[in-house]
Give the backbone structure.
Amino acid sequence: MQKDVPIQENKMGVMPVNRLLISMSLPIMVSMLVQALYNVVDSMFVAQINENALTAVSLAFPIQNLMIAVSTGTGVGINALLSRSLGARDFEKVNKAASNGVFVMLLSSLPFVLFGLFLPRWFMLMQTDIDQIVDYGTQYLRLVSVLSFGLFGQIAFERLLQSTGRTMLSMLTQGLGAVINIVLDPIFIFGWLGMPRMGVTGAALATVVGQIVGFALGIWLNHAKNHEIKLNLRAFKPDGRIIGRIYSVGLPSIIMASISSVMTFGMNKILIAFSSTATAVFGVYFKLQSFIFMPVFGLNNGMVPIVSYNLGARKKERMVKTIQLAVLYAVGIMALGVLLFQLLPRQLMLLFNASETMMSLAVPALRIISVHFLLAGYSIVISSVFQALGDGVPSLIISVARQLLVLLPAAWLLSLTGQVNNVWWAFPIAELVSAALCTLFFARDYRRKIKVLEE
């Protein structure tokens, strides 16, 4: 039976902005904190196997990050089109965007399935010739790639919930998947409760089971609770125009996030020339920093539909206040991260069973890299504003400049000094460039897209 189209305006157009941003963002931030906790706990358990297992997961991370980049980037395009269509009260376009969004999201998992079947060992051998690391990484990558449909499906249905303001329900799908990961990790890795001891393969299996459960819950919540979107997959036909609109915003976001995989791969190559321990330290840093960055990404996920909706509704004041508050909260979160990394680096590394050799590399690394966190909070929010405005190109340019044109060359040049600690300064250097570019592009978009709106 067809559900009635709502006649009242969505809360994104009428609720007080601060309360709206908090109510939209907080559930996603909590779920992403749980997700970040999973990332940390996952590596903590893997580190108990041995340091090579931790290094293998670090070297596998660029592919895992690429899957996340494609899925979340596509989700940005879906979210922006849905929220803008809701703001303009074009419900036919809303339903078409949702159906086509789910279609392209699941289709996007197929290249990773093929990769998992044929190429994981080749990818690991590109980075190291240590047999145990190659074996561990191959086992891990094969499973998370072949069963990646769970990740893509989970994110697709989360975005449908977020675009209509149902972030509490979105939190349930993310949170449940992450909790299942955390619970299953020791059971599968160490063979608890009568399960066989699977080691690194167990970590991968826990990951994909959590994602598939989150996917299933997302389907049910959208069907039962998301009344502003009606998915009719039986009568679905791909719409090239709608898919093009999704990718006009989503593709730059995909490329932008994928660049992070290239950067990680490049940094791994630079660091492994010093030692496999240096690569493991970089992998641990990425897990730890996710605990700081994930809440900011959650804040962005709450902000983007608000800005997009009010762009469609031509409500300038609400857009500006949302952006200002998002920057303020993001920088505040990052300030807490700086304190944590500066004051407690040894305690953080002890969570990963760090040897004294690893500790000697990690403590200065965490302190040096965290210098850039405050600027990163500002840059992350402003880059997401471009996407909310339907202008993903500036975000792409900024990401390319930061990670490929500045960070990797700077890291390589600093590595020539022969001191691995110098390599970490590439991160603050790159973030300075990123913040400057964000400011320049935002000034342009403000004049073109925000200032011209009439209340």
